[in-house]
């Protein structure tokens, strides 16, 4: 702070006035503030004292050492002063002797300079006289670079003394020797098998020997192209090496030679200006070099791409990417070295192509794994000992199939994530093709495989397919599990791993579409299961009706065995279905109590539009009444139409009810095609009542079952020659005993 700005009230200022500060404090502050200020001042004072003591203690040794040093310096300076005085005396003596020597040698100095110049000239002349022999010796030793250097050095001397006859002969001999050397170098330059290093060295020597620049430039690219082609052919035979060794060989051999040729050609023909060549020579040379570079890089990268395609699905992906990363770094370095050149092709396209091919390979593996899993499920179902055991094992089969598919897909997505590692020198997502490739992992691999699952599973539900019923049930439940959670888990995983914003994309498939397809497939498979089981029940009932002589029946004494078999089969079916679609406390899955409308009597319910239930007691009608069709027509008039082959829901009651409807409808149609005697009608009455006594346990609403049984008995009455029904009590006794 400057003096003009110093305040008398600032304790840190040099112009601080304690009296004025105290007066101002007493005037402006309260007693409490004054006491606080006093405490603060006391505290600051104590702190300053403590800091000063610490500073003194810490620097005490330094102060002592500095004092000793100063005292010692005083003593040393006295000795040094005497030494300096002695040195000055000796230097004066040396100066005197030097002046004396200079005066003595002054006369011979010019003579020594003349002798030195003559000696240098004699050495040059000696060099020229021995040059032809020396050039021959260097050429025999194949030390062409030194021979050319000596010859070019001698040209300066020849230019100065070449008119002398003695030197003219030496120059002619040297020119003849170098002409032979030039021819030898030209032959070596054109010889196959030259490395890029030797081509460069020979080319530089020929340029120094005034070879025509344009011819040499063209010849250099031609010879280098032959050598690089030999390296490509050699690399094609390295099939036994892994990808990393293969790429290392290409980098150390092909790319290093190519880089050396390009840089040497650039330095020799593009970077230098030649007076004897046309003005556009450098531009044309750069264009030819660019074409040469891209042609050879394209050949090499095509070879690498073929090797990558052959290794996909068989080799280690990480090793392959490490090799491609190393190649990508080398090509990036070549781009930096090759100034003014444009390398059109790069390794990112190969990497993106490898990602596409690996996606296709993984997609095929997923499909094969899915097919194997389905085969294992079918084998497990075929080897099951009983329906009950099958019912208990279906949940395990579904769980194994679901988990196997989901975990396999997760593993594939994790494997493909290696392409996006941050430590690679390439970033495929930065390229437009790479971004499409990443989206292709989601669409072609994941979404495509989920749709493949839906399509294959749906194929098992075709009428032409001979699939076991329980397989349809397993596949339907698996599709339902995928729809409920599997699809969401997998799509969320791929979006998270690959940072895909599918919600805001108009081109990507939304999760709801796949869920809808899975649910539709699950419905189709469940409907196929119901149709197949219904067909099995129908087959038993149809044969039981068609193979019996209903006109010559005996008086019924028991329920037919086929009805018991039907009830048992429905019980087994419900046990299996209940293990998947209902978790009740009843292990059998059966209802244990009937509804208030159920009855064990020999009458059956009819549905009307105005009443939920209408009961008819066939035993109350007289034969004349039964022979009339009015009753049946009235029933059909007021009854609702029953859809047999409707789509079922994902509940046990809906599934079993669908099977029962198909079976009873088949039985009804078979009855309508037969003619019955009195006892045949009574047998149908007993069978229908037995079904009524047992089927209510399998459904949630037995009114539909009662309606179909009413239709069944009504049709039997219409087709009966003597329509006399059995007494209800007798029917009850037979059914309970049966």
Automatic annotation (TrEMBL):
Keywords attached to this Swiss-Prot or TrEMBL record, sorted alphabetically, are: Golgi apparatus, Lipid transport, Protein transport, Transport
| Compartments it resides in | Golgi apparatus, trans-Golgi network
Q: Which superkingdom heads the taxonomic lineage of this protein's source?
A: Eukaryota
Gene Ontology process terms (BP): endocytic recycling; Golgi organization; Golgi vesicle transport; lipid transport; lysosomal transport; protein transport; retrograde transport, endosome to Golgi
Q: What cellular component terms from Gene Ontology apply here?
A: cytosol; EARP complex; GARP complex; membrane
Claim: Transport is one of the keywords in the record: yes
UniProt main location, coarse: Golgi
Pfam families reported for this sequence: VPS51_Exo84_N
What role does it play?
Acts as component of the GARP complex that is involved in retrograde transport from early and late endosomes to the trans-Golgi network (TGN).
| Family that this chain belongs to | Belongs to the VPS51 family.
Listed under subunit, the entry gives: Component of the Golgi-associated retrograde protein (GARP) complex.
Indicate what this protein is called per its UniProt record: Vacuolar protein sorting-associated protein 51 homolog
The organism named in the record is Drosophila pseudoobscura pseudoobscura (Fruit fly)
What lineage is on file?
Eukaryota, Metazoa, Ecdysozoa, Arthropoda, Hexapoda
